[in-house]
Design a protein that fits this description.
about 120 residues; alpha+beta; four-stranded mixed beta sheet
Length: about 120
């Protein structure tokens, strides 16, 4: 049973995960060389999938990103929208910022390599 409190708690956890993702790259010295900027998305994807951010690279590529606060959330998203509609990054509470930054960059680079022309 999903109560209003549960839904609010999930939304709040999702917002915290999104803010953490942004915070990981605020210090440009810790960002990858290819990163230009990160912008909050204002639209959904072509298939109706949620996009939280667009990550722009210096070479002009734009990567759609969905932030999840759990692996279960990622699995549900993939089941609904497929694995290659956006780059999905799970913000794990038990990982420190350096580990999450490394994992996020790895996910972004892997997604970008698969989508390269």
């Amino acid at each position: 049973m999903n109560t209003d409190g549960d839904a609010h708690s999930k939304r709040e956890r999702g917002r915290r995960s999104e803010e953490r993702f942004l915070a990981l790259f605020r210090d440009s010295a810790k960002a990858p060389d290819w990163l230009d900027r990160i912008e909050r998305a204002k639209t959904k994807g072509a298939r109706g999938e949620d996009i939280d951010f667009f990550v722009f690279s210096k070479d002009g590529k734009k990567t759609p990103v969905n932030i999840k606060s759990s692996h279960a959330g990622k699995l549900g998203f993939v089941r609904k929208h497929g694995p290659d509609t956006v780059c999905i990054i799970v913000m794990e509470d038990d990982q420190d910022d350096d580990a999450m930054r490394t994992e996020s960059v790895f996910s972004l680079e892997r997604w970008r390599a698969r989508k390269a022309p």
